[in-house]
Amino acid sequence: MTPDAPHPQPIIKGADWVLTDDHGPGAPTGIYGVECMVCEARSPLFDDDAKPVAVWTVQHTAQHPEHDLFLARAEKHWRVVRRRHEDENPPPPQRPVLAFLDRAFGPAFVGLMCLFTALTGYFISLN
Ligand SMILES: [Zn+2]
User: Fold this and answer.
1) Rounded CA gap, 116 and 110, in Å?
2) CA–CA distances in Å: residue 92 to residues 39, 89, 95, 99
3) What's the pLDDT tens digit per position in 46-95?
4) Which of 51, 60, 77, 96 is surrounded by the most beta carbons within 10 Å?
5) How many angstroms does the Cα of residue 41 sit away from the middle of ligand 1?
């Protein structure tokens, strides 16, 4: 990571450590591979692009028509860094209550909205 790069969004923060996706030099955004569930043949791994893996999968089934179930993997690097407390003194928010609610309930709220959206679709489909 270059010194001027913005800090990646933390996945989780502990008291002293922060876990983030690693976007450092040479770090792929994704590593893709697939494994045949019939014969355990594995595709090569490809960085940043799932399409070559998809091509390998179709070719494997073309060569072995009964091999039609695969375990696809998409992996990425994580990095744990020491938490830098000096970076964490932002100016006070304009609307502290809203900011607090966003911090406290943001992810849960988004999750609930997804659930409500899914349930709404379900109930509409029942009528
Ligand atoms: Zn196979």
Assistant:
1) 10
2) 59, 9, 9, 9
3) 999 999 999 999 999 999 999 999 999 999 999 999 988 766 666 665 66
4) 60
5) 5
Query: What is the whole-number distance in angstroms between the Cα of residue 11 and the centre of ligand 1?
Result: 36
Q: Which residue, chain included where needed, has tokens 């955004």?
A: 29
Q: Which residues contact 1 (CB under 8 A, 6 or more apart)?
A: 23, 24, 25
SS (H, E, C) the chain: CCCCCCCCCEEEECCCEEEEECCCCCCCCCEEEEEECCCCCECCCEECCCHHHHHHHHHHHHHCCCCCCEEEEEECCEEEEECCHHHCCCCCCCCHHHHHHHHHHHHHHHHHHHHHHHHHHHHHHHC
pLDDT at 4 over 50: no
C-alpha–C-alpha distance, residues 114 and 91, integer Å: 31
Q: Give distance in angstroms: CA of 61 to centre of ligand 1.
A: 7
Which positions ≥6 away from 9 have C-beta within 8 Å?
A: 20, 21
